[in-house]
Each structure stands twice: as C-alpha cells, then as structure tokens.
Amino acid sequence: MTNQADPKMIDISSAAASLVSPEPQISVDSPKRFINRELSWLAFNQRVVEEAMNNSHPIYARLRFLSISATNLEEFYMVRVAGLMGQLRAQVQSISPDGLSVKQQLDAIHNDAAKLIEIQQNCWKELQKLLPKAGISLLKSEQLLSDDNAWLRDYFTNDIMPVLTPIAVDPSHPFPFIRNLGYSIAMQLYDPEQERTLIGLVVIPTQLDGYIRLPDHGERRGRFIHIFDLLIHFRALLFPDFKMQGFGYFHVIRDSELGVDEEAEDLVSLFENALKRRQRGMVIRLTVNDSMPDYLLEFLKDEFDVSDEDTFRLKGVIGLTAVSQLIGSRPKHDFPPFNPRFPERIREHEDDCFSAIKEKDFVVHHPFESFDVVVQFLRQAAKDPKVVAIKQTLYRTSEDSPIINALREAAENGKSVTAMVELKARFDEAANIRWARDLERSGVQVVYGFIDLKTHAKVSLVTRREGHELHTYVHLGTGNYHPITAKIYTDLSFFTADPILCKDAGILFNYMTSYTKPSSMQKLIAAPFNMRKTIIELIDNEIILAKKGQPASIWFKVNSLVDPKVIDKLYEASAHGVKIKLVIRGICCLRPGIPGLSENILVKSIIGRFLEHSRIYCFGNAKNMPSDEALVFISSADLMPRNLDRRVETMVPIENRTVHRQILEQIMVANMKDNCQSWILGKNGKYKRYVRPGPKVSAHEYFINNPSLSGRGKALRK
Questions:
Q1: Disulfide engineering: 623 pairs with which of 286, 473, 627, 654, CB 3.0-4.6 Å?
Q2: Is the peptide bond before 293 cis (omega within 30 degrees of 0)?
C-alpha cells in the first residue's frame, strides 16, 4: 500500500446513505439516540449467521460460522440475559440508556432471539443439503447397515455406556443435577413387570461428541450419527426392563455470572468456590425439541422451576454448537490455507529481538504476521543471561502455552519474573488458576488482579543489563497472549524500547502489584485513570478544529461502542462537521445518519474469515486522513463503560513514522475500503451488506496476500 492514500479512495459515505431508511429526527437528549446494547449484540450474531449462509464461503467455513453463532447465543443467555433476569427478580427499576425497562428489554431479546434461532435452523437445513458434496453424510438409525449397526453397538457398549448414568426418577432416585449447558434425554418408561410408569433420564457427559463418526468402508466415507439418535437407538441397553412410551431432548442454560464482588483474604479460593456455584446457577433457559410430549415438558419445567416464557420448543436440531465437529481435513472445502509471515525485521537482526527493537519500533499484524515473534521475544528473554527481570500481564492464554513455559523457564534460570494473572477472564477462570499455580511452583511471583477491576491490558516488559546500564523493552498489544486465537483474531503487537513508554509500563505494573496510583505516566494512557478523559479531549480538539473551518476527522476501529458519554461526544463532533468513520465489529449503540445529530458519522462492521479484534483510535489533528500529522493510538480497550471505568487498560500513542503509516494508511484504509465482508449500520439500527459496483476489496484477503506491514505491500487501487 502506498504511504499516502487518496481520501477519495475511501469515501463510502454516499454509498452508505443509500442503504439507510428514513427515520424521524431524533433530538440530542432523546433516549432514542441510542441503540439497545443487547439488541445490537443479537444483530451482530445475526451477521455471523449470515456468513454461514454466504454461498461464496466454502462449506467448512459455513459450518464454523454456524457453530460460532450458536455458541455466542448460549454465552449471551448465560451472562447478559441472566443478568437482566436477576434484575427482574430483584425488582430493579433501572432503565437502559435507550429508555427500556428490564422487562421490555427481556421481551425484545426473546423476540429477536427467536428470529435468530429460526435463521440458524434454516441455515442448517440448507447446509445439510450441501454436506454430501463435501463428503459428509448424516445418518439416522434406520439407515444403518448391519455392519455399521454391529460396530456402533460395540462402540456404544465400550466407549459410551461406561460414562453414562441412566436414571429412573422415583422417590428413591430423585431428579439429578443437570449442569450448565447440559444436553439430556427424557423418556417416559413403562415397567410391565410392576405395571408402573416413570421418567427415565440420560444426561450426556460433556466428554462425548455431538456427532459420532462411523468407520470408513470403501465408498462409504465421512458418515456421522448424532449422539441423540444413537442413545435412542440403543435405549434397550440403558433401560433393559422398560418399554419407552415417549421421549424428548432438552438443553439447559444456567446463570453463569460469578457474582464475585466482596473482599476476600484468598482471591483464588473465592474464585474456586464461585466457579462451583456457576455450574449450579439458576436455569434461565430450557430448550426442548418440538416433538417432546407435553407431560415430559411439564415435568421438566417443574423440576427446573422455569416459566413458560423461559421455555423454548425448538423446531429443528438442538445443539448446533456441535456442527463444527463435522469439519474434516479436505482443504478444498475450507478457506485456502496461508502461512503467516515472520517479521523481516527480526530476520534482519539474526533473530535477535532485542537488537531489532532497540534499532527502531515495529508493529506485527496478526494473524497475517506470525504470533511466534511474541513467543520468541519471551523465550529469548528467558534464556538471555543479560535479562534480569520480566513482567507480564496474562488475561487469556492456551493450554500448554509457550508463553507460560517461557516465563517458567525464566524463573528457573534465576530471573525475577512477575506475572499479573487476571482471574476474572470470563470462562477462563479455572484455567487461569491452574497455570497460575504452575507458574508459582516454578518460582514466578504471581499477582492476582483486583477484586473490583479486571486487568485487561496486554503488556510484557523485559529489563536487560547492557554494560553498566539497565535497558527495558516492552511489548504492548491489542490482543491476548494466546497463540491459538492469534491465528484467527486480527490484532496488533507493538514492540518498542522507547525509554518513556518503558518507564510508563513499569509504573503501570507497580500499580497492579502495589496499588501505587500511576499519576506520573508521560505517554502511556491507562484506564480507569485517564483514558476516557483523553479520548473526550481528543474528540474536543477535532470539534475546535471544525469550528475554525479546518479539516477535522475521526477514525475508530473497535469491537464495541457502548459508552453513552463517548457516543454523545461523537454526536457533538458530528453536529459541528467532524467527519467520523467507525469500524465496529460487534455492539454499536450509536445511531448514525440522523440529521442534526449524526449525519457525519458512518458505521460499518466487518465479519469475515478472521475475528476483527484490534482497537485503533485515529484523530485527524487539522489534516485530512490519512496523514502523517494524524494522532494514532492502539489500545486493549473498547469504548464500553466496563473498559473505561472498571478495567486496567492501555492506550498507546504511535509516534514512530513508519509504524504510524502502517497502521493508518494500510490497516485502517484497507478496513475502510473493504466491500466484501462489510455491513453498513443504518439510522434505523439495522445492518445491510455493503455492496458497490467495481472491484471487490477484501481487507482479509489483501493482508493474506500482502502480509508484511513494511510498506512494501501493493497499494489498494480504485
């Protein structure tokens, strides 16, 4: 991409205007100026499902999108809907920024979620028609041949029955506990010997796959049977003395908020106890198949104590999260493979990270450029005898993480190693406790996060003795230290030896370990201290420029925009003529295109092969963007109250000219120009695909084909 892009190349405002429907004017103080957060999230997940319905994607990718959307919806109910239901039970009379009561929000959620589930099921019906072309066959029990039946019987007897516990419910065998996200079968059973009827339950352990693959025989390949069908097929082995008179499948979702808000002497024990409570949280959603007999449904509703409005009869397949298990290894049915490029800067310095960083700042664009550079940075620090100390934040990482292993090796080599571990990383709490203890056993000084704040910043600080002086090197990222997600999330890793930024990072670590307020940082911006204030001031600066008749512009790329104060400030900027372009993947509560309020704001969302995760904040600073004089920041934080007020986050100014141009003129321009995987948000709160005549531009494909941010990538031409 060229170093100076033509602003006309990225002028999509007129195209966006044609995609929005007319709405009445909304005043600056009307609650209608906000889009409901929960409904915006459901709209995002619908865009994910739409990618599963996208005929231009290969079948494996479409299965993956469908599975992700189903998983997303489960987590949404476990956390967001559970929270609202808790407020309703507690008779909390709060009103959302968009003016809805808790009950109104829940009603709207159930309505939109029902539509989303219908879309998911219709998508699955369409995908099933395409599965045979990908060599995938889904079998019913009546389609099994004799040799298949024999193999399945052996498999069921040896590999499934030992982990099942069939239960006949009666006074001496009470209804069992069904864990969160549990799948089960309920049957009405008749005992002819004692002439009685009772309920039988089979709880499916999480260790069992949703789809069982049969062995390949000649041309019979890629054949699967669903675990529900298999259990019903061999029900006589589970309840040999009974006759089945009716059955149904069901799935429960429980309230999964930990509710850790009290002081504790032992934070780890507090979280271990909270994790146990999570599995036993209140059932907030009971889903059953449409053909379940009414008497079985009423029995389950009584046992789980759920209302009619929290019970869902599903016309389709329960458990679409499992469809990703059908994905095979045929490359032609998936996105074309690519090899992430290792940064040339490191190669040019004979794989010496410290030498490369000391020469000049550089940025790495994941997943197009390899996450291995981050791992190598820490591995080199662990082995280098000149390194005396490593400080590291850890929010999420993988099992058998090379990051964890490098920190352990460093401690075992006698270096001072401090790991700031966040226990409140949702759904990763148990894993974080496990590897935190592994780190402690290796001699790492483990410090746990604050009880009232999440430590979400991504910082790695290495101190090295060079001659008679100590020099520091820092990695500041937008994503987690997670080598698996780094292959599918777009994120930025910024490496610098800037003495001021390194000193600021050290001050931030001192706050995280000793509560010393970081009041003396010079360049690094941090939440919950001055990030909101700085963003507001930077927007105000663009307003001042616009009032003077000078160029004024704002470009943001974030995952979510929720914070009412920031939204209102963006509305104010728009009203004064500041040109604002926002790339927001997920939740957006700002309503663009409203005359007198937000007509200068464009909002687009990119949903594609990779999860857009990097956060970038750009301010024109009296120049039309892109420009060398624009102010560019990367951040770990989205524009949400939780990020700005209740998390430790970083916002990093990019001052190196090369890195500045790479982020602004390559990444941001490519995102603005994308017309293959983009959606435009209308003033009515609805999204439509961005379609325009002319050449197709995919930001993801561009960076796959031009992975280096060295400035050598070919330009995006109109």
A1: 627
A2: no
In this predicted model, what pLDDT tens digit does every residue of 110-162 receive, in sequence order?
999 999 999 999 999 999 999 999 999 999 999 999 999 999 999 999 999 99
Number of C-beta neighbours around residue 58 at 10 A? 17
> In the predicted model, what is the mean pLDDT of residues 338-362?
93
* Residues in a beta bridge with 561: 588, 639
pLDDT at 8 over 70: no
How does DSSP classify residue 364? E
Greater model confidence, 713 or 540: 540
Rounded mean pLDDT of 475-501? 95
Residue by residue, DSSP assigns 55-88 as TTS-HHHHHHHHHHHHHHHHHHIIIIIHHHHHHH
3 state DSSP class of 448: strand
Strands 211-213 and 137-139: unpaired
DSSP H or E stretch at residue 218: none
Q: For strands 243-254 and 223-226, give the pairing.
A: unpaired
Helix (H, G, I), strand (E, B) or coil at 172: coil
Task: Give the integer Cα–Cα distance in Å for 419 and 445.
Answer: 6
User: What tokens appear for 511 in the block?
Assistant: 């706050």
Catalytic site positions: 456
Cis, peptide link before residue 171, omega less than 30° from 0? no
Mean pLDDT of 662-681: 96
Residue 428 has pLDDT above 50, yes or no: yes
Domains of the chain plus CATH, in order, are 7-28+527-705 (3.30.870.10), 49-128 (1.20.58.310), 142-262+281-333 (3.30.1840.10), 344-521 (3.30.870.10)
Task: Judge whether residue 25 has pLDDT over 80.
Answer: no
Q: Which residues contact residue 600 at a Cβ distance below 8 angstroms, ignoring those fewer than 6 apart?
A: 573, 574, 575, 577, 578, 579, 580
Measure Cα distances from 150 to 205, 222, 599 in Å.
23, 18, 67
Evaluated on CA atoms 184, 186, 192, 195, the torsion sign reads positive
**β-pairing verdict for 211-213 and 196-204:** unpaired
Q: What is the mean pLDDT of residues 532-559?
A: 98
Task: Map residue 165 onto helix, strand or coil.
Answer: coil
Q: Which two tokens stand for residue 279?
A: 């599995």
By the 8 A CB rule, do 376 and 346 touch? yes
Percent of the chain scoring above 90 in pLDDT: 76
